Amino acid sequence: MAEEVSRRDFLNRIGVTIGAVGASAGSLVLPSPAHAQAPMPPKGTIPDKPYKTGHMTFFTGPAAVLGEQSYKGHILAAEEINAQGGLLGKRKIETVKADEAAGTDANVKELRRMKLSENIDCFTGVISSGNTPALGPVAEELKCLTVFTDGCTDFLFEKAVPNPHYVFRLTNIQSADGVMAAIAATQAWPKITKIAHIHPDYSYGRNAFDHFNIAMKKLSGNIQVVSEAWPKLGTTEFTAHITKTVSAKPDLLFCSVWGGDYVALYKQALKYDLFKKMKVATTLAFGVAPHALGKDHPEGIVAGVHANYHFMYPGGNKWPLNTQFVKKFYDRWKEYPNFEAEGAYTALYMLKLAIEKANHLAGGWPDDDAIIAMLEGLMYAGPSGYNYIRPDNHQGYKDAITGFAMQSPDYPFPVHDPKRVITVPIRSITAPPGYPKGEPTTTYKWIDETWPRVV
Amino acid sequence: MDTLLTQILNSLFYASILFLIASGLSLVYGVMRIVNMAHGNLYAIGAYVAAWTIGLASTELHVSLLFVLLVTGALAAALAGALIEPAFLRPLYRRAEEYQLLMTFGLLLVLEDVMRLLWGPHPLTASALSDALGSISVLGATYPAYNIFVIVIGALAAVGLGAFVYRTRFGVMLRATSQDMRMASALGINVKRVYVQAFTLGCLMAGLGGAVVMPISGAVLGMGVDALILAFVVVVIGGLGSLEGALVGALIVGFVRTLGITYFAEVELAVLYLIAAVVLFVRPAGLFGRA
Question: What is the topology classification, in CATH, of domain A4-25+175-307+400-454?
Fold first, then answer.
């Protein structure tokens, strides 16, 4: 029988931190120190052959407003590394790009083509949870070193590639998304019981639905799902879904619609006064490139960032690595980064660090197995905080984050209210190594079996 | 009660858009016996051009004039149609149908890339129009006034197109050509001209559909293919080549989709295909089709 605790005690126990980000946004003062990890001089002879990466993300369609920044983050990191001579001072990074909007089958063919005819050294990127489980096994078969920067479904390393060797993935695991939305919602509005759902009808939406519900069951006790809507991914017409949601009179709408779909959804929902009639929690409202949202975006909703990263946090000079990254990204692209940009940027720097460590041990250009051994268990301080790659499942973890939308005079788009940013240590909301696998995900089972029920 | 009314309006709104797309597709097939796969992207061209012109003019012109600019989307699609028919379709009429399918499917892909080239990968929006009208209260329910504007446009288009085909001299020529192209030609009708006019009219309707939906959904790459698939569902139900069929099919799909979302959320898309399958099984030519 699960123990019972009060909600406040429980949130304290799992380490929920709310608020005070530091100096207000807009004051991007650059601290003097350069990048944290000082480069080690390379050992042995390094070839000057370019290091080829293949980067796949959405360049077209509604998903591009979220995905395209992944490429920009990757290119920014590659340009910075190349400006210092390249990997180990010699190998310049060259990038072949591919449009993920081509569809899963075409994406798998493209990975094969990149590896077999373009001879890429490393494959990176990928946004959709529908694609990583198809690409992962192929990358293993091709023996292609792969660092996915999203496509974060728990399914990838629990079922599709249960014993990864060549495949890694940064950005938080997907179950964290639904759980973070539940924590933010119950913390802000403890009395909600009636929940409505709108999710894209594929693995991501299902995952968000499951994990939000199990976390709410623990955090809130008696919740009741009063409405469900499952639009197709890529839908930009939501009138009937919105009407159904409004008519169910829920206390809270939980929504994992993302990209251009979300932009269309919130604009249409405004006309139905949806945001005046209920509280709203999302997983990816602020997942899109920041400038894709308008001044008409509602304030006060839980504006998810895939539990990963928002450019204002950590703010001020609290974490100079972030201040520097945001400034560099803005100078290069004239826009602010989203979590995909940070993920792709950090992925390339983690690869660089692993290559340097491997070189330090054995000298010369390290083979893939040596790089892999260094990536396993690697800890790296990036713009979003500490990133850790678990050796047992090759999944990257960092503390989860979400926040509440507000309109600030400093930006032409909505941002997180700096006083109400919520962060949670990732170990508090994700199944630990060695926990027996379960359905629909191990984290779901772990929450169900080990979290107390609040009273 | 207010929910019921809102959902009826939502269904009519969706049906209006579908009718604008499907009527053109059906008209072109009825007259020319061509299944125009490129039709979806003529709809998308309407959306892109309207978003582009409205975006350019939004700071200069009063919002009421911006509504007039929606017409630019329809005209651009019509112009594209007037160029495509003589250049790409005319040489293929004497060939097997497979050639026409390949050609129009090729055009679908080419137009997609042309739009990407011209307007880039990101969605274009011009929500100023829907923002300007705001929301109105209908029996206690809040409803976007712009959606009602779209329903009115859809209804006017249905009446106008019907009057055009059944009440005008050109309509008689159109129907004569569709029934027997050789006989019409023998009687002195310039079939070439009828073809290009019919194709242009079909594209105009699609472009208008794209233009009026754009302030709500934006202009997005891929919208053409999605719309094409739904338009095929509509004409399969209504009967390919029939205007009444396009109207009834659009209404059926509009209402069934809303019902599906409300009561069978998990199988929202499957419901539509199921209806199409049932119609194909019971009446293979569609409800109003000529077998």
Answer: Rossmann fold (3.40.50)
